[in-house]
Here is the input.
Amino acid sequence: MPIRNFSIIAHIDHGKSTLSDRLLMRAGAITEREFQSQMLDDMDLERERGITIKASAVTVFHEHDGERFMLNFIDTPGHVDFHYEVQKALQACEGAILVVDATQGVQAQTVANAYAAIEAGLEIIPVINKIDLPSARTVEVAEEIEQVLGFPAEECILVSAKTGQGIDPLIATLCDKLPPPKGKPDQPARALIFDSIYDDYRGVIVYVRVVDGELKKGMKIRLMGTNREYQISDLGKLMPRPRQVERIGTGEVGYIVAAIKDLHDVRIGDTVTDALAPAAEALPGYKPIQQMVYCDFYPGGKTQYEELRDAMDRLQLNDSSFSFQPESSDALGFGFRCGFLGLLHMEIIQERLEREFGIEVVQTAPTVTYEIALTDGSIIRIDAPSELPNPTQVLEIREPYILMNMILPADGVGAMMKLCEDRRGVYKKTEYIGATRVILVYEMPLAEVIYDFYDRLKSATRGYGTMDYDFIGFRSGDLVKMDILVNADRVDALSVIVHRDHAEARGRKLLVRLKQEIDRHLFEIPLQAAIGGKIIARETIKSVGKNVTAKCYGGDITRKRKLLEKQKEGKKRMKRVGSVDIPQEAFMAVLESGD
Here is the structure.
């Protein structure tokens, strides 16, 4: 039976999940009623936000020219923070459907995903979706695809995933144009692990793409990365519901259950082989992940440290782009330093911890990785300001820079250029797509982008601007560590690394925000921002007053004075020994002072 493996890639909201559901429906795998409910987005978060977070792999069968084809396809996310999910999916395929919205045209992630597919050597089929909408600009969008991406305009397939128009020609093109899998059926079994989840009853369920040979039920397998051996108790495919099979052949996609209890035995990108006749070498796997944003998670409420660690272990199994390591803080106790691909990724992980595992977390403000050149010639990397060595040992601090591609309406260029220059951006070039849209390219420090840049971009372009970025390396700058002192105690979790020119203004804004968030206590609380030993800004939270002279009516003034002096002494003592409660919102104030 001929096999076709492909991914569906596009910018956010261009109709990938709807097109996936329409392909499932056309193949008879789901009904009209199920089509309405985003079949492949099975996480509550995905449905609520209307975005795909995890790539989903599905197998369907289709008759074409009298032949029965097996179609294995993966619906991928569109947001820049989940680009790693897209790259994983592309490596398990030979082709890709590039979906472009007929009303919005080519956007930033369209370009990024198309280049990723070209780099992976995939056959690409350009598809223009949503042609049923009154505002569809089909001809102009086809010309944009030709101009920006180089695919001939006449080769674009016009479809409406919502109504089903154009789906048959698309499936015919998939069967005719995409190459079959290249594997060797007569070689020892080799399968690439591209995803995994944990099931309380069955252990780790591993999703694989068989490259060479085949996997059978009851077969003894070896995970080449950890050298652990298991016996396959269950094999299956998602169609889109799990269906058991006896074997998975060369070029096919499926899942393995083998009573794997230890989460650390399974690694995404590892190779599964036959334990009795193993392959000589493992598959190349995936490129290592470059985490962009870091923050600390500490157990909050009734959550214990061990519960948080177990939940993170399970989550990491399902999302290999998330990493964590133990961390401790004077203010917050024991927790974890976590790495993410971006702010949305961080938000999703926090929500998944709370919903799927019932975990409460206290989260510090996000930071980026810095490279520190020391006076002894060595170079270290830190991902928290508290890890910065003594200033006498530091030669220079280098921050991560990204190449930012923005696609926006021509009338938004002025506002965006001003925003980029305010954020220390370096202008590279401008390209026009048609008469009304522009690609604007800047090199920028990542620290200036992770806070609220995306929101500012959307408001400056009335919602029409999109962005995508690539990490280009570390560059030195005039950066300093700004400490925050609460009641004369340094709070590590509130420290930030800032550009010296912006330090004072940033410090003042931050203290004003903290003053609003920290409750008044029975004693006065000074808030200070300091660089080294120099205080650059101060705010004071006034104490809660108690009227100790209320019961003195009339009589000698010395009685009142005596009571007031006693109160003053008590406040002094309390200021010395009293501790300040810092709420979760105060740590996030570091974020909001980013403007």
